[in-house]
Amino acid sequence: MVELPSLDNLRCFVVAAEQLHFRRAAKIMSLTPAAFGQRIKQLEEQLGQELFVRSTRHVALTRAGMKLMPLAQETLAQASACVEALHPGALEEVPVKLVLGTRFELGLSWLVPAIARLPESFGYMDVHFYFGSGDDILEQLAARQVDAVITSAPVAHSDWTSHFLHREEYLFVASPELLARQPFVSVDDARAHTLLDIHEGLPLMRYLDSVVAEEFCFRKVRSCGAGGAMLELALQGLGVAVLPRYMVAPFLEQGALSVVLPQREPLSDAFRMIARKDSVYQDDIKKLSVYLAQQPLC
After folding, report:
1. What is the tens place of the pLDDT at every residue in 125-172?
2. Domain that holds residue 26
3. Do 163 and 275 lie in a common domain?
4. Nearest to 133 by CA among 190, 197, 39
């Protein structure tokens, strides 16, 4: 393998070629004349060519020196560019592709609009989306198919880190028409109602179960697969449901939904941005989480 010349020797050569005076060049490089001359000699021996014609009164470039000069200047410029490219401030401008996973409803109602409003300081980020169920998006994170997920699911993993985004409050709701036909004023009234939830494991109903001493026994449980489907069925009067406050708030204001058992407030939870600790995008994910924490849920 050919030994490459050192950047210091190339720098000495360029300064000498610009000055055509070894003592001046040595002073510029903060070297003694002897040390400077040794650098030039090392470079000539390494390249197998004399680079300067020297006399006691005159220094000039040889043909080899003239050919080397622009190449040496370009090499030094590229070396400087390498250093500048990795400067902490410059790294913030390196394009970054981030894939974020979350639930479909939260993605469409909040995450996508928030990302669409990203300020110019996030211009280097190319954000992509993945929508799935709570379990699915966590599996995607573990498989490194997404860079971070936004979820309220309880997660404890030694290889992951999380950033708080928003408190998530829940309400137990139903349509006024359903409640007019079939009142729901006590836990016992559950026997006459259909419960809407994501699946038979009742992941949303647990927020209410946890604060009620009595056991709810519903006439029927209907699996809906997603919060959006639960909301639509509740609006149609086809069941009662525990849903996020941000999702049902507009319909409560319109009178299309009513709160059931208002004296039994469900537990709250929190949205978090979860990412792998070994992600090379940790700083970018943290910066993005700070921004998202400032965007109100809707």
Report:
1. 999 999 998 889 999 999 999 999 999 877 778 899 999 999 989 999
2. 7-85
3. yes
4. 197
Looking at the structure, tell me whether residues 139 and 224 fall in a common domain: no
Q: In terms of domains, do 188 and 253 share one?
A: yes
Number of domain units in the chain: 3
pLDDT tens-digit map of 182-231:
999 999 999 999 999 999 999 899 999 887 778 899 999 999 988 889 99
Q: Token digits for 119?
A: 């300020």
- The answer on 277 and 163 residing in a single domain is yes
Q: Do residues 261 and 175 both lie within one domain?
A: yes
Give residue 119's Cα distance to chain centre. 15
